[in-house]
From TrEMBL:
<keyword id="KW-0762">Sugar transport</keyword>
<comment type="function">
    <text>General (non sugar-specific) component of the phosphoenolpyruvate-dependent sugar phosphotransferase system (sugar PTS). This major carbohydrate active-transport system catalyzes the phosphorylation of incoming sugar substrates concomitantly with their translocation across the cell membrane. Enzyme I transfers the phosphoryl group from phosphoenolpyruvate (PEP) to the phosphoryl carrier protein (HPr).</text>
</comment>
<keyword id="KW-0418">Kinase</keyword>
<keyword id="KW-0808">Transferase</keyword>
<keyword id="KW-0813">Transport</keyword>
<keyword id="KW-0963">Cytoplasm</keyword>
<comment type="similarity">
    <text>Belongs to the PEP-utilizing enzyme family.</text>
</comment>
<keyword id="KW-0598">Phosphotransferase system</keyword>
<keyword id="KW-0479">Metal-binding</keyword>
<feature type="domain" description="PEP-utilising enzyme C-terminal">
    <location>
        <begin position="2"/>
        <end position="293"/>
    </location>
</feature>
<keyword id="KW-0460">Magnesium</keyword>
<protein>
    <recommendedName>
        <fullName>Phosphoenolpyruvate-protein phosphotransferase</fullName>
        <ecNumber>2.7.3.9</ecNumber>
    </recommendedName>
</protein>
Amino acid sequence: QKAEWRLLKDAPSVTADGKQFIIAANIGTPNDMPGVHENGAEAIGLYRTEFLYMNSSDFPSEDDQFEAYKEVIEGMNGKQVIIRTMDIGGDKHLDYWDLPEEMNPFLGVRAIRLSLMNEEIFRTQLRALLRASAYGKLGIMFPMIGTLGELRKAKAILNDETEKLLAKGVKIGDDLQVGMMIEVPAAAVLADQFAKEVDFFSIGTNDLIQYTMAADRGNENVSYLYQPYNPSVLRLIKQTIDGAHKNGIWVGMCGEAAGDSVMFPILLSMGLDEYSMSATSILRIRSLMKKLNTEDLKELANQACFVSETSEENEQLVKDLMAKLN
Ligand code: PEP
Ligand code: MG
């Protein structure tokens, strides 16, 4: 890490013209917390809870989950923590959960689909999350939502568990937020409608790119199609941000693209509110943000989405713009 970046550890995340945003960290377990603090994260934008299930020989109990979530929430001292309900399936398997083999696992029973088909396991996780919400500022986030029906079903189950806990006198956080990932293109297209039913979005570009380009994110043979700067992907991102803002909710990104130096100026130009990345990327991006003036970036989003025709063109567009700054 550059010495210049280290100085920004406790600095706010602001642009050259003083606009402030949130730079957050992605984590997989409470063991990742030291890195979060060392790199000055302003929030946890994504806690991938599936590792709790994967690093275990049986389903983690409600209390085990509660302890893990509470540790992370308390560790952030009032800063927001977004915890995603389990994203099992796709390429993530559990030895103790015998799920049917599928032809196309990334297009099959994964994430929220699996949770809604196994309600008791989902309810256990939600209870642990709701109990932990009393210890700080929690956001509960649903992965892989593709339809309003799925979102409404997940929210109804969450509300049901909330009411049951409240009836028992269990304390639940006052500023609990409920959000969803935007990583299925169908949800990005209908973002304005989804935005009416959640407190926030977080764009998962790792999946959004693979599903938009129909290119398996782990398959080398089609990696040439895995194009974060493709105008089609950028339009979906812009549409998501616009749909969120039109309805008064905030929108973040927790896919790898949030910490990508070429993508970052484009996202800033679109007005993305929160950028969540691996902790080791935070200071590099905070330093880059400091050099950028949102006035200079005004036209970038429209150009990248509606004038450029290819991913390569967009990469060059940002590089030319950055060269002018230096
Ligand atoms: C994503 O899809 O961008 C994301 C953050 O989720 P994951 O990488 O865990 O699928
Ligand atoms: Mg994903």
